[in-house]
Structures
1.
Amino acid sequence: MARISPRLIKDAYSISPLLPYFLRANPNISLAKQELKWVQEELPQSEWRKAARSRHNLYPLQYILGSQPFGSLDIICKEKVLIPRPETEEWVLRLCSVLKESAQNLSIVDACTGTGCIALLAKHELKDSAKVAAFDISTDAYQLSMLNRDAHKLDVNIVKADLSEPAQLMHICSSFDLILSNPPYIPLSDYKLPVTLNGIEKSVRKFEPKSALVGEMEFYDLLVQNLVRPFGASGFVFELGYREQAEFIRKQFCEEEWGSGILKDYSGNVRCSIGWKRGSNLDILERLCDEVL
Amino acid sequence: MLVRSIYRGIRSEFGRNVFGYGCRSSRGISTNALGINMDELPKLHPSLLKRAETLRVELEDLETKITSGTFDQETNVKFSTISSILEEFAKYENYRENVASIIEMLNEENGNDQEIIDDCVSELKEYIPKLISATSKVQVKLIPKVSNYDKPTIMELRPGVGGSEAQIFTNDLLSMYINFANTKRWGWEIISKTEGTLGGLTEAILSVNEPGSYDVLRHESGVHRVQRVPATETKGRTHTSTAAVVVLPKLSEGNESSLLEDERQFAPGEIRIDTMRSGGKGGQHVNTTDSAVRLTHIPTGIQVQQQDERSQPRNKAKAFSILRSRLAALDREREIAEQKSLRTTQVSTTDRSDKIRTYNYSQNRVTDHRCGFSLHDLEGCLSGEKLEDIIEAVEQEEVRERIESL
Ligand SMILES: C[S@@+](CC[C@H](N)C(=O)[O-])C[C@H]1O[C@@H](n2cnc3c(N)ncnc32)[C@H](O)[C@@H]1O
């Protein structure tokens, strides 16, 4: 967020009296215009002013509009549940296009599903070639993901469960081939820092749930110990934010049995850890890797 | 001298371009008392006649194919297209024979029997205009189609000189094309639109989804000029502003399902995709709404950016579709340039910087500079109802030029 000059406010005002309210949340005026346009397209006129004020307060646009596109799905967004990110959308679409070529009867689970976006898009893309389940510990997430599932009429089994409670996971399914997850991955120290120091955006800190964001290695440990191992999975894709997390995950597997790599996002940042059991039908996951570990 | 005057009358009424290939001036050798001969009447260029002949053979082949039981969609469509062309051609031949036999009669008569001459004159009065219109119709059909003629259309509109007035004019043109599509009952959608100040546009991309609309709308490519008194002008002065229209064939839907196919059109490394990077570490750390995607076609340097959609993949899909269209247009420009360099006479119509049309408000007039045609109904043009009259005049002019260069 750059400093906003009086000149910029004047320019914005001459385009629309509502536009200045969008300047704080946006790095430039053209993006601010874009946001105002979306507000005007998607909300009744009576709500524009309120929307503009909320946005001035850095309230997320997706909560204002009530949705975020994710692949070809429109995912309903509500407070207390993390808004799906474009980086997540990117890897899920890439994953699906690889799986589409050769996937047969895959059983997939999306751990820490939030809005349900990963599980729902995977089901939408893979259709009958995959059986998809998802779970989250939070009641808000559970309810919202159910709402999204019903809105898109997708056959995904959604459960409220805690990743750290193996007993709760047992009810979902007897085995999974592929484990997907975007667990909380921001260390508490970074959670407190501003974006310019590799921390997080003010809008994220102010309005998105902390319990969806803060985590370090523990979630990856749980994903491996409570899902990959006991459910006999032969592949996984875990979103992450730090190379150390990818290296931590790598160390959980013996190199003879498991191949592993890193996927980078469109900005060139390390974004996912990918693993596949050598010789299994999921060794196609190697194609997603920008770097083999 | 009555026939000559009818003839001259027709000539001046329809303009010289309707007379088709090889029309001589009326000072040609006269073989009858009234000074008219067949060489002066509209006739098709030999290469178009040859094409009609080729089509006739092709139609026969298709006929045998169909009677022997082949009944696929493609054959059927081809069959009906060719038969409709040949129908027009038959009309043309018919009228030409009619006129020829009347002239022959006149020749034999040599001006003695006034009653016969009168009959011939009234028949010529009827048939010459019919021959003229049949010739121009069949010419349009026989002349080889431009590539991608059967495709839907992408129209890109941008203001040129004239500041905010040019932006407003850009918006007026956009409405005109939407109105035109509506009167033709063609589906359309706005791919992207960037608003400027005072209700103007700094850019708009319109998709007209009707297959074949490209062959009509491609004539709109070029710089459009408006002369009027802007609403903000206090002294009542007329301003001149411009907007540029680029018309492209639409080669793909530009949605998530066409994206894969569009991406496959390019070799790895041929396209650079830039997504607006979210600041810092991205992912959970930030929540960006910036979904803009920019494509760079490395071999040509062409760049396409899309940001209207909240969805990044949708912006990417649109950008790919537009890029393919622009590259197709580039191919066509190259094709034309090659053809031109083979020719001695230069065709002046396709120069990008040329103003193709003027919209003059005070005179209620729209003039197309490529064919000299003026429509004295500006409102009718902008409402989309009369635009086709102008486009048809431009089309006729193009046919004439292309025939000259055959
Ligand atoms: C970063 S969000 C990801 C949401 C969604 N998958 C996405 O990509 O947008 C992490 C989610 O993990 C959930 N979560 C946190 N701890 C959990 C636990 N112990 N068991 C299951 N889910 C948990 C949070 O409720 C939150 O919805």
Note: Confidence is low (pLDDT under 50) at residues 13-31, 344-351 of chain B.
2.
Amino acid sequence: MRVRSWLTGAAALVVLGAAAFWALTAPATFTALRGRGDAPRAGAPDLDNGRTLFNAGGCSSCHARPGQDDRTLLGGGLELKSPFGSFYPPNISPDPTDGIGGWTVAQFIRAMREGVSPDGRHYYPAFPYTTYQRLTAADLGDLFAYIRTLPATPGQVRAHDLAFPFTVRRGLGLWKLAFLDGKPLAPDAAHDAEWNRGRYLVEAAGHCAECHSPRNLAGAVDASRRYAGGPNPEGRGTVPNITPDESGIGSWSRDDIVELLKTGFTPEFDSVGGSMAAVVRNTAQLSDGDREAMAAYLKSLKPLPSAAPKAN
Amino acid sequence: MLKTLLAACVGCTIATVAVAQAVQPIAERQGLMKAQGRATRDANAMAKGEAPFDLAKAQSVFDTYLVTTSKFASLFPADSKTGETKAGPKIWEDQAAFRAAIAKFEADAKAAKASTTDLATFRTAFGQVTQNCNSCHETFRLK
């Protein structure tokens, strides 16, 4: 069964009958079919590693409280515009009532990898768990421990502002069976350790593909044109192609990519803006080695022609 | 008939003038930004030790930024919102914030120039003033 969109999902409801839909979309069904069983690190968590994943994963870009400069105040509330409506990322600070201070590490891992909340509801993929599903349990345990060292920020955010049928979370169960494969990133022996590290940072944490790829009708990343750029989901303009094609960043050296991830400057010494400015504030916090690894991985991508016309 | 043609033609000259007006400031503001890009590239090479440090050259980078800040605000007339430009709508929606971003860039460039006496002070000053590039582009420029 191939499910293409939430709308087709609604049609499938009629065809399959409500009972089958209910079974297929239950968060427990997803866990049973796709969940995997690795565990977080035994003993003390590695907070430095947690901080690295926090920066590589760009949690601040969406969860930091808007209108202030402290990246570690995770009170949420930023408006994320999408074709389905506006999302407001919640408070993930360690506040025990408004944030995730009362969560267990297992609940956190399930949220990050399966997109399921502690009370068993599906999360919208505006939360990029389609990327974070590839993080190892050890890294997620460290990330959770790091977040718990940050300041507790009270206050809840407003509800998402979505159009029907996207308001129905249950329908996401079908979307997830179609677009969330639950597979870890197995190291690729054909490449060296640096490339594998770069791939992990880009594919499991950095969610670079979530912005730098066109999406299909169901709002999922178009796999055949991953990293080929696309329209800006937030409105006017485009997101550039970052494959090593001439319509992408084929003319950039590895050092050029490292420089961009550190300072935000392109080879023409233009400074990247828009939503990429926040990404650079995250990657600027990583080690030189990690930025080198990400550049090595990006240079190895398959060159693809731009999926969106380059804005002048 | 003739009247209509004439009226149409007056209309077309006005339209041409309007377009010409919009193209001018766009080209000028982009030219200022390109010059900044070149100056920033040279400065970055010095800061990273890839080019020899030269105090006069280092300070002239900040002068280039100050040329921009002295002219930039006047180069965004209402008819230059569209066309070959990546200027974002927020420039016109929140003019006070845009002017404040220019003023901050100017203050930081002045402070950077004053504090640069050697390579070490240059590195710090350059790092600080170039934060303005990302933050202004984040809000006021489209891709």
Note: Chain A has two domains: 38-179, 193-299.
3.
Amino acid sequence: MIRLTINGQTREVDVPADMPLLWVLRDVVGLTGTKYGCGVAACGACTVHMDGQPVRSCQTLAGDVGDAKITTIEGLDGKAADAVQTAWRNLDVVQCGYCQSGQIMSAIALIAENRNPTDADIEAAMDGNVCRCATYVRIKAAVKEAAKLARA
Amino acid sequence: MFAKRLLEAAGLSPREALTGTVPTRRAFLKGAAGAGGALVVAAALPMPAMAAGPAAPQVVGPPEPRPLAFIRIGTDNTVTVLAKHLDKGQGIVSGLATIAAEELDADWAQVRGEHAPADVKLYANHFFGIQGTGGSTAIANSWDELRMAGAAARAMLVEAAAQRWKVPVAEITVAKGVVSHAKSKRTATFGELAEAAAKLPVPQTVTLKDPSKYTLIGNPKLHRLDHVSKTDGTAVFAMDVKRPGMLTAVVARPPRFGGSVKSFDATAAKAVPGVRDVVQVATGVAVLADHTWAAIKGREALTVEWDDAKAETRSTAQIVEEYRKLAASPGLKAAAKGDAAKAIAGAATVLEAEYVFPYLAHAPMEPLNCVIEMTKDGGCEIWAGAQFQTVEQQVAAAVLGITPDKVKINTLWAGGSFGRRATPNADYIAEAAMVVKAIDGRAPVHLVWTREDDIQGGRYRPLVVHKIAAGLDQAGNIVGWRQGIVSQSFMVGTPFEPMLMKDGIDATAVEGAADMAYAGKIPNFQVEYHQGKSPVTTLWWRSVGHTHTAYAKEAFIDELAAAAGKDQVAFRMALLEGHPRLQAVLKLAAEKAGWDKPLAKGPNGEARGRGVAVHESFQSYVAHVAEVTLDGRGGYRVDRVVCAIDCGIAVNPDVVKAQIEGGTGYGLGHALRNEITLTDGRVDQANFDTYEPMRLSDMPPVEVHIVPSDARPTGVGEPGVPTAAPAVANAIAAAGGRRLRNLPFTREGVA
Ligand code: FES
Ligand code: FES
């Protein structure tokens, strides 16, 4: 049994220690907002927060999580999260939407730390998140809008 | 051309297809156990030739208004519009809802969108005769149908109010979801009238709104209906479906196309905790487990010996070499006017170029997957980002030994497709059904393709070689054009073959070339087609033949204009005489990009250049202007892209813009660095580390300008793709870089 704190709740899961957190979340806990896109840390679709830091859950083993608090797209709250989700909605960023949980988790982590991101900051924070629909023009604009909303 | 060809094949004009009867839907199945146990399943589309039979033609679409098939008004005052087309990101659920809601005079806030069930009698694509999405046809073929449905539903609500209030229908108005009678100051919401309206007969004729009265269609401020559910994790994709007792299956498939299973040993796989079963199916060996991770681990533990006797064993370089030889030899004439060879031989200036386009994977963000469960009534239920529902019903039924009407499909949001989810043989649905059959239907099965399966799994945009020669006279006019195109056909052997192959020529391989608008001004013009052959599977890929024909055409016309010493825009404008819509987008894009103003050098004196490309696809018209900077060290940066589109009436202008932004990124991203290559028949790329997608830092700013239009709406999902890459390539050349003819750009380097 592995004990995990996910979205403020403690969960006991009966999984091998080397099972990636991604599959624990999706297939065992039933939180499917976090997506599988590549399994090799190359797309960011599986991004969740561990103690507020963005991590690729496909590369995070269940046995390595320990006491860290995991937040998924289903468990968001706070100013940065509100700002990012609002900006995403205002600008209609989504197309297929499959990458967007990961995009949003990465953007929230950026905005939580940096309310005035430059283009270079945005690229550094978001370049690991692939969007096959290429919604990048709007992602860039939405991160800036979110920063503005978070500053207000 | 894709949609156009389908219509032509069906003997219909677009107008007839949209408003008239559609030929009899008569589908058949070829199910056969082929060599090596491979199950060959093909579903056929209805075609006039096949329709010739005792069955009477059946009307599957307009003209009669069918509000009940498309619109549900709840007593809770919600208006749900059922989308018969798959939303894979292109926003079609919102688009279709907009059309119906406009005529209904609904308030956008009360409108919901939902995928319709699979039912070809109600939901056929009028261009295809089956239920399916593709060829950027969704808006075009629903335009009349949904306006009529909306208008009919509105009339029923008005009639219900008139009866309740005992006032004449003519005195009733409707706005923003509220039905009013001004004289008596009475109002009712749609929800309050829904039950009464539902009991009324459906009107047989309706009056459609004058477009000047539109408040939703053309409104740039409407939000997509999925903009909340896709930003809080609640949107459900097939990947997210869980059924009681469900097993997840991953399949080990042959590492070479055309290979098959010789033998396998499942001992180690079965020892992986969570693995429940290992079964052989026609496509490979399936490992079934309690969850995805165990299935993946189980597959890793599997030992399979493959039979490569019929497999592709060539490497990419060999295939290209063979294609180049073919391109230089005479082929089947897809277009022929005058004597191109003679004209070129006698020309003042002759230019020649060869273009090589690699295999490309679609790589939709959500890898292929679906859930199939046998049901108590002897049927089955499917959850999928279903794109060709009728074909999928037929194929699943054939595999499972049931009838298609027993196949219920739940169409869910699809995480992209770019063409991949629409296959003529419903490939991944068939595979899932085979797995279900192999375990006697004892558990629901979630078939999941990993990203590696996706990148290495074929159905690629074909590898294509173009060879073009053209001659200019002294004045710089094109006197002859000769183009050879070599490409595999993904139509051969499919139900689409009779429609899209004519005299051995695959229309989808030459579209955008054989019918290019420039040809009207070129007295001697010839396009030849050669069919390349390989066991590598290929498929339409966002914008199909235009992915390569637009590039070759626009890159080569650029060389001709340069050789003639003419301005790139002016040269094209003159050639496009008689094609006002192409001219208009070219003019608009050039104006917005400031084409007439010289481009300043970069901040450190770097060379900069501007390039243009213009093309028609799927009856929409697009021009791109790109600006690039060469960094002097062999690199470049796309600084800005300006695009103009004419897609007729823009139903959702903001979605149109989003599709053109995304299409630009899709076209450009692959041209930058993507290719699928083979070494001894094995795919060299495996995942996003080796088939690296365009990323945020690669994406230039994109400006989209929509040509105002009152023409019938046409597609926008694909037309943004074709001109993006050639505009950038032409800009690189204009800046003094290399003419890029061998894609992706990373193959040759720009300097
Ligand atoms: S699924 Fe984890 S980075 Fe792609
Ligand atoms: S919205 Fe489709 S992959 Fe990003």
Note: Residues 461 and 678 of chain B are 14 Å apart (CA to CA).
